[in-house]
Design a protein that fits this description.
Layout lengths: L6 H11 L5 H8 L4 H8 L13 H19 L3 H25 L15 H10 L7 H17 L2 H23 L2 H25 L2 H8 L8 H5 L6 H7 L6 H14 L3 H15 L10 H25 L4 H7 L6
Helix pairs in contact: 2-3, 4-15, 5-6, 5-8, 7-8, 8-9, 9-10, 9-14, 12-13, 13-14, 15-16
């Protein structure tokens, strides 16, 4: 593939990156006096028109949707954005299926940033007619209904849809012939599997449950997870010593042991991905900067949500700071 087709898109991305919130601004928000003071810090950012005191969550949702709208406009190949937009399809499908099965309206929980417009998706789920879905997604959505009817466990819906979404992401990445897309999907799969392994190990849920939730086709072999699920976490960390994941796993486990908070594992895994994305700053041609920008903006929105929620609930700056991920800029 001729990666120079991304040249104009990357020029636009470099301009957009200058509008992102840097570490100093994040720190100022964390140290702000209260919720309203924090809102004032956001007024001169690109979130100023989205955020209101009454409903900042809706504003952040709208900002997310607009990121994807803009990326679809500037990216020359739709599948580059689709790779990440599929995660919103996953969220939306899960929400709508659970709503249908419970007999409640869950449309308000959806985020219209996926590859399938929410209004169309809502009709598909209501009618249980998925013929217009891509084949892989259709198979797993129908399977999710079937699995729930057999088990009556809503978690089976999440597990089944997750497997389908990441399988479809891999299909798109492989057919695109863009190595970076395949790398980023496999990195996500490995990170999710490591997080799942640690949680299941701590909760002592065993090999069968690990097999059930394991996402296939990552870089790490499935037997690494299945054959070591009852071993110590230190032993597991040592077995991935020669991989790029060792450092964040070791540090995350260290903080978990010290504080007893599984959120440490999530945080260190997310920071690893952000650190990986920073390599895209050096790329002049290719899809890398587009993928990196989208994920960096999502990370930025999550940081704003954590800070505003903390300020609204009078959480101390130190605790808010602990919950934040690294920033991209």
């Amino acid at each position: 593939m001729d990666n120079t087709i991304f040249a104009q898109s990357i020029a636009r991305i470099r301009s957009l990156e200058t509008k992102m919130i840097d570490k100093a601004k994040i720190e100022a928000m964390v140290e702000s006096r209260d919720f309203n003071d924090c809102l004032r810090f956001l007024q001169d950012t690109q979130y100023g028109s989205y955020i209101t005191a009454s409903n900042y969550e809706e504003g952040l949702k709208s900002a997310t949707i607009d990121i994807y709208k803009e990326m679809y406009k500037i990216c020359p190949l739709r599948e580059v954005v689709d790779i990440l937009a599929l995660r919103y399809d996953s969220h939306n499908i899960k929400s709508l299926i659970k709503g249908k099965l419970a007999g409640i309206d869950t449309l308000y929980l959806t985020v219209d940033a996926g590859t399938i417009p929410v209004d169309r998706l809502n009709i598909m789920v209501k009618e249980e007619n998925f013929r217009d879905m891509p084949k892989t997604l259709r198979y797993y959505v129908e399977k999710a209904f079937e699995n729930y009817k057999n088990s009556q466990d809503p978690q089976d819906i999440d597990i089944t849809i997750d497997k389908g979404i990441y399988e479809y992401m891999l299909e798109i990445a492989e057919s695109s012939k863009m190595e970076y897309l395949l790398d980023i999907v496999k990195l996500m799969i490995d990170t999710i599997n490591i997080k799942s392994f640690i949680r299941i190990n701590i909760q002592e849920r065993g090999r069968d449950f690990m097999q059930k939730v394991l996402l296939p086709k990552g870089n790490l072999d499935k037997d690494l997870f299945l054959n070591n699920i009852t071993d110590s976490l230190e032993s597991f960390a040592n077995k991935i010593m020669h991989t790029d994941y060792f450092k964040w796993v070791k540090e995350g486990l260290g903080e978990y042991i010290k504080k007893g908070d599984l959120g440490s594992i999530e945080k260190y895994g997310d920071n690893y991905i952000i650190d990986y994305l920073k390599k895209a700053k050096l790329v002049s041609f290719g899809p890398d900067p587009i993928i990196a920008y989208i994920l960096a903006r999502e990370n930025e929105i999550r940081a704003i949500r954590i800070i505003l929620t903390g300020k609204r609930n009078d959480v101390s700056p130190d605790i808010i700071r602990e919950r934040l991920r690294d920033v991209y800029v």
